[in-house]
Amino acid sequence: MGTDRIYAGKDRGVAPFEFTESVVRVFPDMIERSVPGYRQLLELTPLIVRRAVGKGSRIYDLGCSLGAATLAARRAVQSPDVEIIGIDSSRQMVQRCRQIVAEDNSIVPVHILEGDACNLRIERASLVMMYFTLQFIEPARRDALIARIASGLLPGGVLLLAEKLSFAPAQQSWLDAHHHDFKRAQGYSDLEIARKRQALENVLIAEDRETHHQRLRAAGFEQVIDWFQCLNFACFAAVMPPEQASPRP
């Protein structure tokens, strides 16, 4: 994998961001240098897997990109008969992800699909991961997707939803300034930061914390826990109600 220099050139216009072959080649470098806390989020993911995932259930990774979360979950699975299903809409991502998964030394079956996560049928899921994916889906489709996820989760099942958040103007300005400082510390130039921001405009559409909470509650999640945050990037753990015990005769 290469170093992200996609927005370093001065001689090209800035096209809307897409997960093209050039992005795939540098994606691990791009996301780690752009999303503060990303590596730690992956390191913490197995903690949720070990508690949430039971025998005979499924893990879904929606917007799996190159499979970083998929593999973090795979290596933490402790119950037999668990399978993992990842899906991504980028053909280039899917092709490379399948290669990476095939090279990983694990017996837990993983199936990487190419397609639209909004159309995926989710069944017998104990855990669904959606790391920085919902923000790239049209807002009008988000409610239905979250409802579809909730309907496919087992009692007590968990959705891990990581997103870039939006805030009130004063907070947003403060967080944006420090996010840009983070990027500079990772070696990005002011030009690269400005060009990447321009490319993501109207492509990555962030929502505020309350909007996420309301959507998750409306879909039927019993608990919505602000589980992880670093600057303006956060991960919610949304938990379905547990299975109700049968009343005694």
TrEMBL record:
It is an enzyme of class 2 (transferase). The lineage of its organism: Bacteria, Pseudomonadati, Pseudomonadota, Gammaproteobacteria, Chromatiales. This is Carboxy-S-adenosyl-L-methionine synthase. Keywords: S-adenosyl-L-methionine, Transferase. Residues 59-157 form the Methyltransferase domain. Catalyzes the conversion of S-adenosyl-L-methionine (SAM) to carboxy-S-adenosyl-L-methionine (Cx-SAM). GO terms for biological process: tRNA wobble uridine modification. Pfam families: Methyltransf_25. It catalyses: prephenate + S-adenosyl-L-methionine = carboxy-S-adenosyl-L-methionine + 3-phenylpyruvate + H2O. Homodimer. Belongs to the class I-like SAM-binding methyltransferase superfamily. Cx-SAM synthase family. Its EC number is 2.1.3.-. The keyword DNA-binding does not apply. S-adenosyl-L-methionine binds at Y38, G63, C64, S65, R197.
